[in-house]
């Protein structure tokens, strides 16, 4: 990881903006209406964390997460009911002082719910501390819940027949250049618009989207 990080940063030495890595989450559907959930977690592959990243499974809870040693919450994870979640950092504003730390709230979601509607109900009753985007999916439904955005409110986008890309700027305004969100949007939006014309939609479309350089695939 250290050698990769050095080579990558030298490659973008003249482009300060390009050296800001961030996570991308995408929801889409196949021809049968099943949800396809794509995710790049770009903070983890670099530096010391890259060499020590691992999948942790809490068998008694039916929960698995991708993380690093010592992390007891969830940034990206899934459960025995095939509910998957992913977290994207973002700007926002909140004065709330009650709630659960974000990654512990994410783990609570995985431990407590069996489908997307159940997560919607949980979020109506409980709150994490601080702003971020939480992408959620089961086999048939998907959403992005954006906590404490610029207006202080939570915003939700539900997956219909068009893909949902979750970047790092504020929703619903999609403002700011936070972690190259505009650059990634300009790669993903036309890609999926063209992909809609393909009759046999396949998870390979998602795999290819996550390989788009240099902003989506920071490797």
What's the helix and strand layout?
Blueprint (H helix, E strand, L loop, with lengths): L1 H10 L12 E6 L5 E6 L6 H6 L1 E5 L4 E5 L8 E4 L4 E6 L10 E2 H11 L3 H10 L2 E2 L2 E6 L4 E6 L7 E4 L5 E3 L14 H15 L7 H7 L10
Parallel strand pairs: 7-8
Antiparallel strand pairs: 1-2, 1-12, 3-4, 4-5, 5-6, 6-9, 9-10, 10-11
On the 0 to 100 scale, the average pLDDT is 87
Helix-strand string: HEEHEEEEEHHEEEEEHH
Largest sheet: 7 strands, antiparallel
- Shape by Cα distribution: globular
Secondary structure tally, helices: 6
Beta-strand share of residues:
25-35%
What is the strand arrangement across the widest sheet?
Answer: 3-4-5-6-9-10-11
CA(first)-CA(last) distance: 10 Å
Structural class: alpha+beta
Describe the structure.
The chain has 219 residues and is of the alpha+beta class. It has helices spanning 2-11, 47-52, 102-112, 116-125, 181-195, 203-209; strands at 24-29, 35-40, 54-58, 63-67, 76-79, 84-89, 100-101, 128-129, 132-137, 142-147, 155-158, 164-166. The strands form three sheets. The protein has a seven-stranded antiparallel β-sheet, covered by helices on one side. Strands 2-1-12 form a three-stranded antiparallel β-sheet, covered by helices on one side. The longest helix has 15 residues, at 181-195. The model has no long low-confidence stretch (mean pLDDT 87).
List keywords for this structure.
three-stranded antiparallel beta sheet; alpha+beta
């Amino acid at each position: 990881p250290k050698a990769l990080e050095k080579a990558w940063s030298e490659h973008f030495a003249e482009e300060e903006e390009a050296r800001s890595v961030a996570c991308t989450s995408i929801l889409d559907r196949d021809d049968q209406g099943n949800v396809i959930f794509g995710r790049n977690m770009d903070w983890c592959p670099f530096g010391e964390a890259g060499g020590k990243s691992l999948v942790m499974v809490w068998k008694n809870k039916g929960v698995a997460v991708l993380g690093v040693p010592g992390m007891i919450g969830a940034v990206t994870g899934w459960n025995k009911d095939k509910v998957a979640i992913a977290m994207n950092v973002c700007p926002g504003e909140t004065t709330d002082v009650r709630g659960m730390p974000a990654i512990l709230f994410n783990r609570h979601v995985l431990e407590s719910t069996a489908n997307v509607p159940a997560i919607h109900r949980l979020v109506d009753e409980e709150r994490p501390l601080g702003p971020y985007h939480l992408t959620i999916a089961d086999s048939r439904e998907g959403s992005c819940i954006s906590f404490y955005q610029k207006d202080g409110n939570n915003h939700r986008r539900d997956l219909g027949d068009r893909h949902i890309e979750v970047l790092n700027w504020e929703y619903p305004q999609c403002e700011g250049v936070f972690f190259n969100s505009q650059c990634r949007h300009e790669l993903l939006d036309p890609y999926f618009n063209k992909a809609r014309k393909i009759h046999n939609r396949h998870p390979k479309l998602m795999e290819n989207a996550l390989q788009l350089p240099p902003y989506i695939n920071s490797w």
